[in-house]
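pasting input
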Amino acid sequence: MDVLKDASAVVGARPDKVRKENLFETARFFLDVYVVGPGQAQTPHVHDGSDKVYVVLSGRGTVRVGAAAHDVRAGHAVFCPAGAEHGVENAGPEDLRLLVYMAPHPKPPR
Amino acid sequence: MDVLKDASAVVGARPDKVRKENLFETARFFLDVYVVGPGQAQTPHVHDGSDKVYVVLSGRGTVRVGAAAHDVRAGHAVFCPAGAEHGVENAGPEDLRLLVYMAPHPKPPR
């Protein structure tokens, strides 16, 4: 695995679904970059045994954790504890770019 | 714990040592913001059972992982696997601001 990656190079949404690019993964964690285009969303879901953090790199959006909705922009970090339903949506007009950390990895690489 | 934090508000180095501000922590991970002032460094060290990732928010610096030194700037992410010696230094002139993620937490909160 290359130990140096450039998250700033991950720009541009996919037309069909949220773009997810993995930077690093082990059994202990993964770090992805998501690009959520205007009108796209990650449907609320739950990980029973893993904690997630979203960190906004650019754009704006809404992160839901449990019953709460948080409007976010660059620099905001949102903690989604194991067992809490969470999701993210982008009402536009810019792409929403996020770092997504999860620990431990819910589907560990071999 | 407040699930929404603002990493962009963590600006300004300490005069005496690397500034470390925790955003979130559980037994599974921690996420800190470090502000490394010009001339400051985190001395190379090892975590035997935890993986670390540095992500540069602003500034420039050098991250060492094992025998390699990586010059980094905003958007760069560096993976420091468990067992690999790693550290970071800032030759200046700007503050180097980093997200520092580690999993699992080496000293879990109670």
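fyi The domain at 41-110 of chain B is CATH 2.60.120.10 (Jelly Rolls).
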